[in-house]
Write a structure and sequence with these properties.
The chain has one domain: 2-Layer Sandwich (BirA Bifunctional Protein, domain 2), CATH 3.30.930.10. The chain contains 4 helices and 11 strands, in the order βαβββββααββββαβ.
Amino acid sequence: MLLQETSSVVVRHLGRCEYQPVMKAMQGWTRQRSSSTADEIWVLEHFPVYTRGVSCRDEPRCSTGEVPVVDSDRGGQITYHGPGQLVVYLLLDLRRLGLGIRDLVSSVERTVIGLLGEHAVEATIEPGAPGVYVSGSKVAAIGFRIHRGCCYHGLSLNVDMDLTPFQSIDPCGYAGLQVTQLRELGVTVEFARVRQRLVDRFTAELRYGQIVSGEAKLPVLAIHPSVSQQVS
């Protein structure tokens, strides 16, 4: 689908964050945005955490309790986030972009595949299993929530992290699914470089005319008692 060029997007580099405050901020920000609010892209890493999608009740096997399990309002099943994994949250007005959810997922997959192609890594998609794969192993996971034509959550790309916690779950609900990361695929560029190239590719893919650097903190508007509950 050919997108119309849109005005601007705000990009926030949030550093390393706990999962729940970021999720609540996304919920609140999305609930309070208007039709004229610029889209935002939040780029970060998470401290170690397992997250479960709305329909998931799986528990990690052999869990010591050191890594918390958090129920998320995104789609999908159970996954793991941790340092060295690049997380990109897309807070977009899909109506304004002219995108459906399938178009959005395809755009994300295409963006990641293009990034890997810069490093001569051939990546693919798997029908019915959103994400990006290399030789059958998953390198990027995707999950969104849609609220009144706008989306939040996004993708996680394994760059250079400890993959051991994935062994205690069925990643994204698939028993026996192997995961990989850029370092194991021979991509040894700095994390910051991967982060910037992925943002560049997203903003180009979504045809934003202007990229604005936002503050390196969660929007104050989103931290409010009235929006602390999950968006329905």
